[in-house]
User: Fold this.
Amino acid sequence: MTKKSIQKSKKFDHSKAPLYEALCLYEETNHISMHVPGHKDGRVFDKAAQHHFSNILKIDATCIKGIDDLHQPTGSILEAQSLAADAFGADQTFFLVGGSTIGNLAIAQTVCGPGDKILVQRNMHKSVFNGLLLAGAHPIYLAPAIEPNTMTAMVSDIRYIEDALAKYPDIKGVWVTNPNYYGMSQDISRLADLCRQAEVLLIVDEAHGAHFGQVEEVPPSALSMGANLVIQSTHKMLTSLHMSSMLHVNGDIVDRKRLARVLGMIQSTSPSYLLLGSLDLARRYLVEQGRNELKETVQRVENSRKELKTALTSLTIWAGSPKVHRRDPLKWIIAAKDGAAVSGYQLHDLFYDEGAVAEISDPRNIVFLFSLDEKEEDIDKVVNAIKAVDQQLQEPSFIPVEQKEIIMFEAEGTLYEPKISLQDAFNKQYHKVKLDESIGSYCAETVLPYPPGIPLLNPGEEITKRHIDTIKELFEMGAYFQSPSDDSMETLEVIK
Assistant:
């Protein structure tokens, strides 16, 4: 928990959940619904599924008397967002009902206009690039650092960002992902100071770090380190419903009126009050008991991780790296020793058969994700699954596969501005060509191995042999590509 939020918490009653309480009051009044939604508080609904949905349908309300409006909050939503800002150490917090994707789209269109330049870490989620495309911005790409054991991308060294700021003094801000999908967190305090001196925004996609800064046992939050705009997927690491997130703002450098206007444009005018209410409850749960549970869970998970580390023969569990400032103890990164015998995609299937479903798989690793409150028996189930797979890999019947090195990005610190902007590339005419024939052309689609949703190619980027080799290798290993123009990955759409 940040010092800032500790000081502010004295003014707020976190035992309240004003938005959820307003929804409960709506249910208690038992008025006849002559308004949307059409299920009429659950009276008209599929009978076979009603036992699952009946309770929540009664509070699946809309913006009527007594229930606040997300786009012009003056009552329970305003109070709920203020409580959230206090809990997370922000000056202002916006509730989101379209996941962090909506937050990234809103940030891009708030910060940038047509032709504006912004420095963007190249290992960003696709929603960041989509937002910049819609804004007509011209991103300057900065290749990320690579953690050598897991080969995962993270924030590049500050000297590269400093050089980029010197080269592009007219940029609107610096946009990074911290932590990455794997829970690796860098100290961005110096970066925040650098951006402050340059009078540009520091924007942090902290989708996987909503719990950061809440206790000392986890890494500090981006807000506590000086970021101006921070997006968090509250549903990922905390307890709100899927698709519910928060966008936090710090400082006066952010145009909050414009941000609110943009959110009003891209968020539904009929937002889910179930999602909004769950954000309110996630904040209350975190403050009232989640922080204590998080402390205890970290201790249990760390004890199990240390014991597991010495028990494994064929697998490894990542324990940190000199290149990583802090790791999230709620994420376990599992890989084959030496990264040689088994791909992460194979491991995902092996663990699935053992009843343990991983959060993510990649060419080398899988990631298990723990929550705020994990009991010994549940942790033990994961440990037993890991030991079972470790044993399987030692059996003579197991057939290893050749592991190839996958290169997703240029060398750390490489700085480049695509010759064709995202929006121009999206709007140009295109045609399909075979993979090998696409080298030297400009990409017209997003080539997206998923998860974690980081594009290998964005519209407007020049296609190189490295890109083509990586596509082929990923496809052969069983990687999933989201929404490709060709499911077989034998062709690509390129600009005519």
The two ends are 53 Å apart (CA to CA). The first strand starts at residue 92 and ends at 96. The chain has a mean pLDDT of 94.
